Known about the structure:
39% of the residues lie in helices and 14% in strands. The protein is an alpha/beta fold. It has one domain: Alpha-Beta Barrel (TIM Barrel). The strands form three sheets. An eight-stranded parallel beta barrel has the order 1-2-3-4-5-7-10-11. Strands 6-8-9 form a three-stranded mixed sheet. Helix 13 packs parallel to helix 14. The model has no long low-confidence stretch (mean pLDDT 97).
Amino acid sequence: MSDFPRFPPGFVLGAATASYQIEGAAYEDGRGPSIWDTYSHTPGLVANGDTGDVACDHYHRYPEDVALLRDLGVGSYRFSVAWPRIVPDGAGPVNPKGLDFYSRLVDELLAAGIEPAATLYHWDLPQALEDRGGWRVRETAERFAEYAAVVAEHLGDRVPRWITLNEPWCSAFLGYSVGRHAPGAREGRGALAAAHHLLVGHGLAVRALRSAGVREVGITLNLDHHLPATGSVADREAVVRADTLHNLVWTEPILAGRYPDTEEDTWGELITGQDFRRDGDLELISRPLDFLGINYYRPIVVADAPYREGDPALRVATDNRYAETAMPGVRHTAMGWPVAPDTFTDLLVDLKEQYGDALPPVHITENGSAEDDEVSADGAVHDTGRVAYLRDHLTALRAAIDAGVDVRGYYVWSLLDNFEWAFGYDKRFGIVRVDYDTQRRTPKDSYHWYRRMIAAQRP
Length: 459
């Protein structure tokens, strides 16, 4: 056990999932449709025509999944609440059966000695709100705060840690600019409006959660570490644009109460005349947090590139004159992502240097790898690549702590194989294999490794 990285006393080791990816029961007990129901049922958008209708059937099998968490030995479990399960139309009547499900889940976790950590938004926006403009309009942010207040009223006495949004970059830019996530739009100003209203929704939800008296409030960002493809000035400038799009658009308003001073160079004409920004928004967005959640998977190597679209009126928000390039000499996961654990340390240390005391304690709310898992003749999954990935990234995390970054916890992504968004069920991130035909759960070698690693932390 001396081979495992060791963490400070009180450090939280957990596992994470998300509602649409595992719950299933898409049409049961009053749940309304989400943008991901609509997107996944649209032909050609998700691999193999897969949907989250059944997923891992966690809605019915949650006691079995909590038992896996208990045996794993985690101190905390990060789950997300499905907004359309609570408020089916996004506004209006609350669905008591939806609240009852999460209440039962929380009680099951507490009985197993596991601390619940709730994410309020992991991308399953009620379709009714998208039909009225989605995150492009301020109303969605306001409805989000109302929903947050409802959930906190029912679960706040038992859930100590709350996350407002998960990876708003994906919601705003993959959803409204690239079109690879729900709702599948390809826009410029619409995506920038979505990014801003997600931040406003976060600020309003923080206020609602504080009013409900919950213990800890934060947000989860998928921050990326960008590297220039060459040492040229042009490639280094491309890194600044990539960093603005992926990181600064979130960290500057949340942690510093300002918009990035590089946004005009990044978005050009799209950034002018943003009437969706209002006086007082920055004060709202930058309300103090108890922690910052960070999801980290891989570095991104970028090179200078021309605009992909010549007509400024047709440009999407992600057309920022750079291109992602290969990272040679390293292993890549089944997602095609480079494995470079030292960049994990670099990201965290750079963030601390950039924001200093304004950076709250950090929780790594997702980290893991998709691998080409195979079931061996012995019935086991010997996922050596995932074990190496977790070991090396946890070691890199320990190095960041040693360098002075206040990291309080780590959640492996993911407890279960699940619906991996536009990839459907082709990509497996779980430390537990799910046979989607039988719903049988099989802990992989990575599960057993993580279990031993957690046990090694005990005095």
